[in-house]
Amino acid sequence: MDLADLTRELEELQAQALLAVDEAADAAALDAIELDVLGKKGRLTGVLRGIGSLPPEDRPRVGAVANAVRGAIDSALAERGAALRSSELRTRLVREAVDVTTPGRPIRRGTLHPINETIAEIAAIFGQFGFVVYEGPEIEDDVRNFQMLNIPPDHPARDLWDTLYVDVEGHLLRTHTSPGQIRVMHQEQPPIRALLPGRCFRYEAIDASHASEFFQVEGLMVDEGTTMADLKGLLDQFAKAMYGADKRTRFRPGYYPFTEPSVAFDVECVVCGGSGCPACSRSGWMTILGAGMVHPVVLQYGGLDPERYQGFAFGMGVERIANLRHSVGDLRLYMENDLRFLGQFR
Ligand SMILES: [Zn+2]
After folding, report:
1. pLDDT score of 99
2. CA–centroid distance, residue 122 to ligand 1 (Å)
3. How far is the CA of 92 from the centre of ligand 1 (A)?
4. Which of 11, 78, 171, 254 could pair with 262 in a Cys bridge, judged by C-beta atoms 3.0 to 4.6 Å apart?
């Protein structure tokens, strides 16, 4: 190999390298070219190995050509690298640009289920009177659901509740939230002010006004010297907070095995204001809950001395309260979870 051969090889290497640099698409491709051509084991080093076969006086000339080739490739790499970086930056700026004039997208917000919303409102009103929320289990035993509430196995009042039994001896799906009264009395010492919201179950044929699952809120207050007047005053405040300060209320005699005396609590019809309409069967009144003084037997089952303590209890159907608030006429709507229905409540 002579001087001319080596020089031609170097020129060819430069031409190929410059072409490759020109066509490189990104920084990684440039790095690869640099390594392949100029690296320690690169092609330029490979060509220069032939320098040893040249006469000594030719060697500096080849060295000069080799330096020129290295310089040309180096500067081509740097130039192409700068161009690529600025075009990448431009692309990124365009891609990541924020159009501040674009209208905002609406955020889809969930809403409380009307039953939950109603329970929350009931709890908030009674909370102002010191009532604290407790929760009992949905699977109860016969003892707490019936017997300790003064409903023994052969009591005719059991016909009031069509019970769903669980396949475990003595257990059932609670038919009301009242067993929570027993649980709270076993757990707390008077003064007791408990609110017990929860799901209840009965064996019912389902239609617009009957459901096999429904919600109740039970209230229990036990203290020394608690009277019917306390009950009446509290429920009157509740009705006014729920339905308006001008609403009249009344007690009517009622019957529950676990309260004595028992009452039904009526509020002036929220539809007609008391003049009588189909919604209130033309009576002008709507019954919103049942209540009464806790039966001494129930206090005893709760572990409290009825000579010392008196209490009152009340229980309301949450669906009924929600129906009156939102003019809903079909109980099934609460269970179907149709978003077109649920989306109407804010
Ligand atoms: Zn009415």
Report:
1. 86
2. 22
3. 68
4. 254
